[in-house]
Amino acid sequence: MRIAILGFGSVGRGIARAILAKNLDLTVTGLADSRSGIIDPAGIDIAAALAKKEEGGPCGSRDVSPADVVAKADYDVLVEVTPTNVDDGEPALGHIRGALRRHKHVVTSNKGPIALAYPELRDLAAANGVFLRYEATVCGAIPLIHAMQEGLAGNTISRLYGVFNGTCNYILTRMAEDSLTYEQALAEARELGYAEADPTYDVEGIDAAIKLVILANAILDMRTTLDDVERTGITLLTPEALRLAEDQDCTIRLIGEVVPEAGVLRVSPRIVSKVHPLVVEGTLNAVTVGTDLAGDLTFIGKGAGSTETASAVIGDLLYIRDRHVQGS
Amino acid sequence: MKLEMRDQPGQLVAALQPISAVGGNIIAVIHQRETPAATEVLDVQIVLELPEGRLEKLLELLREQGVSVVRIGEQRLLYECTLITIGHLMHTDLSDTVDRIDTTGSAEVTDLSLAMPAINAPSSARITIRSTTREEMKKAIRILRSVAEQKDLLIIEPLEGV
Ligand SMILES: NC(=O)c1ccc[n+]([C@@H]2O[C@H](COP(=O)([O-])OP(=O)(O)OC[C@H]3O[C@@H](n4cnc5c(N)ncnc54)[C@H](OP(=O)(O)O)[C@@H]3O)[C@@H](O)[C@H]2O)c1
Question: Measured between alpha carbons, how far is A248 from A241 in angstroms, rounded to an integer?
């Protein structure tokens, strides 16, 4: 199966390395980063492109733009792994529309377009007879969307809640373990590369809220936007508050929660018993899905990382490969 | 609440059915040998939760079953919820915050632990609220939330069990 990859950062390169390391039967015929692109119907030399990127250069030729790759390359699936823009989803949203209109399947790890325009993109994919898959947008390596769409098909989901942001979980874990202040734990998370220079998006609960919107709209048939999520971040938490929780064998975690029936969409720090399955350490993610037939299921795993996120993208790619006819 | 009755043959069984019929929930059944052993009469206490306003109906059903209720114990604060709040708790009059819950009459703050790290730095407190019913607890938490909004405090609610 032929794929074109837009974005050659952490996730894009993770996918490239997995393709090199394993026999996945995937040929990369298009590739672009922010400044350059390559189109080669015979298959791009991935190892060479990785090497160029690692040296700090562009992955391809400056004469080829990302839009060229979307519009002109020969591929079955567009893999859209460029940075998230939650204001208008661009330029990813335009690229995804372009690929779907060309009857190409799309796999993305980019939360922007899915959170902002899922119903439209789903209909566009259906109208063009192709798949749109987005497992990597929520909880990195955890196959949560597959599990809910396939494994739990037929169940009614009454509640879905958990730890959706590894950065916040790391900060809270460290505050509890060593009585660090919020500022100290954040500084440590930055040093380790778990937090961005501007951590707003994570620590104010925006990232978790976007993931709730994606799950609500795509899986739970709700029609929500980011503004519908009641949201409190972790920036005001104190080591004393964590200790007061600790005194009662509890701790504090940033929990995202969706209760479809009651229309609840909420991200907030919550007191949780230390033996609760959602209390995971470090950057891990954990989600409990409450269902009518299957009961409660809790998924725990890495919510980010190059290889881990690539795993979710590859899962989507092979899902499509196993269900579609080559070419278009 | 607590119901006390004579444990004559069949009375216990006769008492249980009406309790579930009015949507009550039995928490404990306690036999008490208060009276001299020779009389061979037992007192039975049933501790139960009852939805608001169902007590009269329950007593009526019990009478119909021929169960004699000796005493009806006090309503108790069965529901408990612990929250943590962070902010300028003293400057914003912590005792007023507590009062706003206590004045509801059916929920009260039964425990408070306060940690004040430094002057002018936000302090943290753990507040335990008890109430007679789940509805009252929800109401108390709603009150606390709105007080917190006015006073610019952060409220951390438990994940489960409100
Ligand atoms: N990293 C994770 O663990 C993780 C987990 C789940 C989801 N995601 C999502 O996956 C996406 C990619 O994340 P990442 O960590 O790989 O980001 P990243 O390391 O910042 O890489 C982004 C890549 O996209 C390229 N790019 C930027 N604008 C572009 C454009 N207009 N057209 C084509 N390429 C463009 C960048 O080019 P240059 O190389 O030229 O800068 C870079 O190669 C994001 O939406 C992120 O939210 C990431």
Answer: 11
